Amino acid sequence: MDFGLSPEEEGFRQELRAFLKKELPPDWEGEDEEGSDEIWAFGLQMRKRLAQKGWLAMHWPPEYGGQNASRIKQAIFVEEFAYFRCAGREIYGPYIVGPTLMLYGTPEQKAYFLPRIARGEITWCQGFSEPGAGSDLASLSTRAVEDGDDFVINGQKIWTSYGHRADWMFMLARTDPNVPKHKGISYFLLPVKTPGLELRPIVNMASVHSFNETFFTDVRVAKKNLVGRQNEGWYVAMASLNFERSGAEYPGQCRRLVEDLAEYARETRRNGALLARDPVVRNKLAERAVEAQISHHLAFLVAWLQDKGEVPDREAAASKVYGTELIQRLANTGLQLLGPYCQLEPGDRWAPMKGRIERIWLNSFGRTHAGGTSEVQRLIVATRGLGLPR
Ligand SMILES: Cc1cc2nc3c(=O)[nH]c(=O)nc-3n(C[C@H](O)[C@H](O)[C@H](O)COP(=O)(O)OP(=O)(O)OC[C@H]3O[C@@H](n4cnc5c(N)ncnc54)[C@H](O)[C@@H]3O)c2cc1C
């Protein structure tokens, strides 16, 4: 692998940085406050601006509103966006639903959804996990039963991120309970405001309402909103997992955090001595900086392999485990550096780094779980990467 960027890719990085510096307010604190209405509203505006630049779905073919951008360019975009803590990148539409529809959608589904996703007009949420089906997703028990031109859905989903902000949900339900579990599942799209669909908030341990429980009571979904063939939804969903991201957001976030902590150490005295002169502090920060660079290389390796037409599942698993666990280690380094001050609330004028470190620490645990837990990612590396028995 060539670790350098081409002049065109480097030029794109510079253009993107200049754009983000110009677009973000000078006092921008960023996505750590992701639960707030203000940040959400700003993110929607930013999404439209990204769509105008052609960056929202840049990796799509031009006929659907994309630029056929390489995965490396896309990874640069994701990494810089995370570095700036910018809000507004829609993950599900451009990265999962859109590519899924390109493969399995009807002409009508493509014509309706793809332009709207590329223009940043639809917010999606994912209705996959259930109280009894997470890592073992195929055990899901939410039922969809045919009735005339519709399916009628009953059951429960959980951890529906941003369901309360979303316009549409892509979801899985069991359409045939009498066949092996992977074979009786179908993939649906439905408006979140459909009668009978009820969202109940879950507030996470960082006091942020980002996900929900979702209850379905006789929810009617038109048959035209079935994606792929009935009972083949598992394979539709698995294909969409192959569009998974490189994990470039993790090194972006980590690089920024290492820089912020280094600045804090340069400016802060403890017991009369500058933190930046403390050998333990220097050592820890240097260690995290090296790890952030490793995370960058893992993510860009995934993107590079994708550009070569490969499906780098074990590399993507390694990138996810490494990146999400690094955020935890880094936040922990931050907690040690700040000491008890890290507990001051974001609004407190004495809170170092605007109270961000504790938030990142608390949010970091969900990230090693969401989208496939660290244990499951390690299983992928062990079996598909190292050839160990299942
Ligand atoms: C922040 C966040 C956002 C999320 N957003 C969404 C969303 O928008 N939509 C959605 O559908 N879901 C969402 N999820 C759910 C997520 O996909 C699941 O949490 C995840 O798939 C794990 O499932 P589970 O929580 O049921 O845990 P379980 O699968 O019950 O796992 C429990 C523990 O057992 C371990 N384990 C399970 N199987 C194995 C195995 N075979 N070998 C070794 N260890 C194993 C796991 O690693 C874990 O530590 C979100 C989760 C989080 C944390």
Describe this structure in words.
The chain is an alpha+beta fold. The chain folds into 3 domains: 7-91, Butyryl-Coa Dehydrogenase, subunit A, domain 1; 124-231, Butyryl-CoA Dehydrogenase, subunit A, domain 2 (Beta Barrel); 249-385, Butyryl-CoA Dehydrogenase, subunit A, domain 3 (Up-down Bundle), CATH 1.20.140. 46% of the residues lie in helices and 15% in strands. The protein is built from 11 helices and 10 strands. The protein has helices spanning 7-23, 37-53, 71-83, 92-104, 107-118, 233-241, 249-267, 279-307, 313-338, 356-367, 374-385, and strands at 124-127, 143-147, 150-157, 168-174, 185-191, 197-203, 209-222, 226-227, 269-270, 273-274. The strands form 3 sheets. Strands 1-4-5-8 form a 4-stranded mixed sheet. Strands 2-3-7-6 form a 4-stranded antiparallel sheet, with no helix packed on it. Strands 9-10 form a two-stranded antiparallel sheet. A hairpin with a 2-residue loop joins strand 9 and strand 10 (273-274). Helix 4 runs antiparallel to helix 5 and helix 7 packs antiparallel against helix 8. Bound molecules: flavin-adenine dinucleotide. Flavin-adenine dinucleotide (FAD) binds next to strand 1 and helix 11.
**Ions, cofactors, ligands: which are bound?**
flavin-adenine dinucleotide
CATH domain fold name of the largest domain:
Butyryl-CoA Dehydrogenase, subunit A, domain 3
**What fraction, in percent, of the residue positions are helical?**
40-55%
Please, how many domains?
Answer: 3
The fourth-level CATH homologous superfamily of the largest domain is Butyryl-CoA Dehydrogenase, subunit A, domain 3
- Helix segment count? 11
What's the overall average pLDDT, rounded?
Answer: 94
Biggest sheet strand order reads: 1-4-5-8
Q: In what range is the share of β-strand residues?
A: 5-15%
Q: How many distinct beta strands? A: 10
Shape: globular
Q: Judging by the overall fold, what is the CATH architecture of the largest domain?
A: Up-down Bundle
If you compute it from the alpha carbons, what radius of gyration comes out, rounded to the nearest whole angstrom?
Answer: 22 Å
Distance between the termini: 30 Å
Helix-strand makeup class: alpha+beta
* Major β-sheet annotation: 4 strands, mixed
Order of helices and strands: HHHHHEEEEEEEEHHEEHHHH
Unreliable runs: none
The level 1 CATH classification of the largest domain is Mainly Alpha
